[in-house]
TrEMBL record:
One of its GO terms (cellular component) is membrane. This is Receptor-like serine/threonine-protein kinase. It catalyses: L-seryl-[protein] + ATP = O-phospho-L-seryl-[protein] + ADP + H(+); L-threonyl-[protein] + ATP = O-phospho-L-threonyl-[protein] + ADP + H(+). GO terms for molecular function: ATP binding; carbohydrate binding; protein serine/threonine kinase activity. The lineage of its organism: Eukaryota, Viridiplantae, Streptophyta, Embryophyta, Tracheophyta.
């Protein structure tokens, strides 16, 4: 025994070292009561080699949100995630993972509520292994749970995919939700690739399989660089992918089912000393040609009305045909939409208004409803042009001609496709008009058949034309008389085309459509100038929603809302006609480099708040805007703020307070509940208002990447300034605001109240107006 005092000091040192290791736990076994937190520097647990990490990584599309993941620690983690426990749920800053004292692994949100647990108790420790496997182990070292047993879309060397196990592709490179493709190791021993329906996961098409039938077989990633099918006794049945030149000692390897449905065997050099490119390279894949393989049912790799091809690297490259554009350019699997009105079979449809585009080596193998033989190219083209049902015609080298109907699917293009496609597109006339000459050509033969008298023929033809004219006049009168609301006018497309001079003067563009300036000489509100918004992405099933919402919005009247004057719902065209706001958007007013007068900004804040209060609390049907931001606040000639783009927001009945809806809004203004699959209330607008309130105070955007890190995100910086008692820093250099620090401080506090993560802690807009007008006391905020 040594000196008692020295022994005691040594014990204290050992305890201190042990505590510090347990807190940071960079590698090795993870002891009980260890914790990592999203957003902190040590928000991960490393494998002994440092190759793999278990921890929090930012979501690629939103750095303020996180995923709990296993990833390659030495590579950019956004592109090297290999496992996620709850891939359909993102996490907020300060979410945490703890290995509790009773041996449970618990993922918790910032409030401490558990969001995931692998249902294992009494683990003695956890470990991030050099194989990429994260395990919970007993005191004897046996695994109670391992990430290898529940893979997501990737398998690693030494990992197996057992009977009835599956890999599901993510939806897109930056979207980790369940995607459209699945690999399943079936209990009959067959490895099958499925096309699945999102979001239900229904397996509705099989596009590749091994056709092996040895029950209870498994897929095994051999450490030598092969992905094999092996029998229950370990015998090799078949090799799925194989590479022989890249050892696992020098290269990372992974097998991943990608968002395009291809299972690829990737390698990445662990160092570039050998001269290899420091990037992931696909060395083998199944199926070899996904464009050919995925042509049985569904929309294909690239979605409807698109076609599949390859880039120079051999990766899938989706394209839209001429006359079509992406439904969502960042989500090409949603396919392409026609940039013209789909032909309608009414009153003797004909080809006026459409043209045919020729594309060589392109085929759409489905949706054919007629076949002709023999046919020449011009004949095959004209057959489709004259048929209102026909979207395209396909001609092969032997003279076979097929007519195709909407929507076109499973398109494939390449030198191996020995067919020519003729696509029907609009020729800048959105809706084809009925041709007088065509009607003459149709009517004249019929009239000649009635007798030999030229006079009789002319009389019959004249009567026919008069009848048609009366009929068309009645149709126009019915169209103009059809109104969704007593205060709204129903316009025809041609009227709005004329009013905007062929949609020639664009004054705005957003996610929902493009806005053009127009002039209506008969406008009764004293201002003939109007703004015409041409909506995009209209789908037939939206018809009822469009009609109901325009009808309700047309009945709203408030000085702080942009007035809706009318609409057009002709064919697939949807246009909204608003009063024109000559001073543009609040965004251009705030962020052009010159600070607007402080008193004017104060009035703008009050105007926006009044408009939102009206939408939330004073309408017979509550309206949640869902996209409050400076771009959607317009200024009239007196710089009065008016909220725009609420025509297609979410409506709630008088007996509703919340709703479930698809995500809407703009990055930087979106409330946290959108990411939590929670019910949506009017409080999402309150959150957006808080962000915009800070922008009005500071005359800068919420996110400014050029600024220093502490100031880049306005909401965070404002919170820091408030806690430090230095709100003045937010308006530094703004003399007018500095002279009214009472209002500045009030606005900042109110903004922080709006930005509370818990929507129940945010004020209503009615309460907000009371605090703005100083009719009630303003509580101190909890720092969000």
């Amino acid at each position: 025994m040594g000196h008692p005092l020295l022994d005691f000091l040594l014990l204290l040192l050992i305890v201190a070292i042990t505590t510090d290791v347990a807190a940071s736990q960079p590698s090795g076994n993870i002891t009980l009561n260890s914790l990592i937190t999203a957003g902190e520097n040590l928000s991960y647990w490393l494998s002994p080699s440092g190759d793999f990490a278990f921890g929090f990584v930012p979501v690629p599309s939103n750095s303020s949100l996180f995923l709990l993941a296993i990833y390659y620690a030495k590579l950019p983690n956004s592109s090297t995630i290999i496992w996620i426990p709850n891939r359909n749920q993102t996490l907020s800053l300060n979410s945490s993972v703890v290995l509790t004292t009773d041996g449970q692994l618990s993922l918790r949100d910032p409030a401490g509520a558990e969001v995931w647990n692998p249902s294992v108790q009494n683990a003695a420790y956890a470990a991030m292994l050099d194989s990429g496997n994260f395990v919970l182990a007993s005191s004897s070292g046996s695994y109670l749970w391992e990430s290898f047993s529940s893979p997501i879309d990737t398998i690693l060397p030494t990992q197996s995919l057992g009977s009835n196990s599956e890999l599901i592709a993510k939806l897109a490179d930056d979207d980790f939700n369940d995607g459209r493709f699945k690999i399943k190791m079936q209990d009959n021993g067959d490895l099958v690739f499925y096309f699945i329906a999102v979001p239900t996961g229904f397996e509705y098409s099989q596009y590749w399989d091994t056709n092996t039938n040895i029950s209870n077989s498994s897929l095994f990633f051999n450490s030598s660089g092969r992905v094999d099918l092996v029998s229950p006794t370990g015998q090799l049945i078949d090799t799925v992918t194989s590479i022989n030149t890249n050892s696992t000692a020098d290269f990372y390897q992974r097998g991943t089912i990608d968002p395009d449905g291809v299972f690829r065997h990737y390698v990445h050099p662990k160092s570039s000393a050998n001269g290899a490119a420091a990037e992931w390279t696909s060395m083998d894949s199944k199926p070899g040609d996904i464009c050919k393989a995925l042509t049985k049912t569904g929309s294909g790799v690239c979605g409807f009305n698109s076609y599949c091809g390859y880039d120079r690297r051999g990766m899938v490259a989706c394209q839209c045909p001429e006359g079509y554009s992406w439904v969502n350019p960042k989500r090409t699997y949603k396919g392409c939409k026609p940039d013209f009105a789909i032909p309608r079979c009414i009153d003797g449809f004909q080809s006026v208004g459409f043209r045919m585009v020729t594309v060589n080596n392109l085929d759409f193998p489905f949706q054919d409803y007629e076949q002709f033989y023999p046919m020449k190219a011009d004949e095959c083209t004209q057959l489709c042009l004259d048929d209102c049902f026909c979207a395209a015609s396909i001609l092969d080298g032997t003279g076979n001609c097929w007519k195709k109907k909407f929507p076109l699917s499973n398109g494939e293009k390449g030198s191996y496709v020995q067919r020519t496609a003729f696509l029907k597109v609009g020729n800048n006339d959105t809706l084809p008009s009925l041709s007088l000459e065509r009607k003459k050509s149709l009517s004249l033969p019929a009239s000649l058949g009635l007798g030999g008298s030229v006079l009789l023929n002319l009389t019959f033809l004249s009567a026919t034309l008069i009848a048609l004219g009366v009929r068309r006049k009645k149709q126009r009168q019915r169209l103009k008389g059809f109104k969704l609301g007593s205060n709204l006018r129903s316009f025809t497309y041609s009227e709005l085309e004329e009013a905007t001079k062929g949609f020639g003067e664009q004054v705005g563009k957003g996610a929902c459509g493009t806005v053009y300036k127009g002039y209506l000489s008969t406008e009764q509100n004293g201002n003939p100038d109007v703004a015409v918004k041409k909506l995009r992405d209209f789908e037939p099933e939206m018809e009822k929603e469009f009609t109901n919402e325009v009808k309700i919005i047309g009945q709203t009247h408030h000085k702080n809302l942009v007035r809706l004057l009318g609409y057009c719902n002709q064919g697939v065209v949807r246009l909204l006609v608003y009063e024109y706001m000559c001073n543009g958007s609040l965004a251009s007013y705030l962020f052009d480099g010159v600070r607007p007068p402080w008193k004017q900004r104060v009035e703008i804040v009050l105007g926006i708040a009044r408009g939102l209060r009206y939408l939330h609390e004073e309408c017979s049907t509550q309206i949640i805007h869902c996209d409050i931001k400076p771009q959607n606040v317009l200024l009239d000639g007196n710089f009065t703020a008016k909220i725009a783009d609420f025509g297609l927001s979410k409506l709630l009945g008088t007996d509703q307070t919340r709703t479930i809806t698809r995500m809407r809004g703009t990055k930087g203004y979106v409330a946290p509940e959108w990411f939590k699959n929670s019910s949506i209330t009017a409080k999402v607008d309150v959150y957006s208002f808080g962000t915009m309130l800070l922008e009005i105070v500071c005359c800068r955007r919420n996110v400014e990447k050029e600024m220093t890190e502490d100031k880049a995100v306005l909401c965070f910086w404002a919170s820091d300034c408030y806690m430090a008692g230095r709100i003045d820093l937010l308006v530094e250099g703004d003399d007018e605001a500095m002279n009214d620090m009472g209002s500045v401080e009030k606005f900042v506090i109110l903004a922080l109240l709006c930005l509370q993560e818990d929507p129940n802690l945010r004020p209503t807009m009615g309460r907000m107006m009371q605090m703005l007008e100083e009719k009630v006391a303003i509580p101190l905020p909890v720092i969000p």
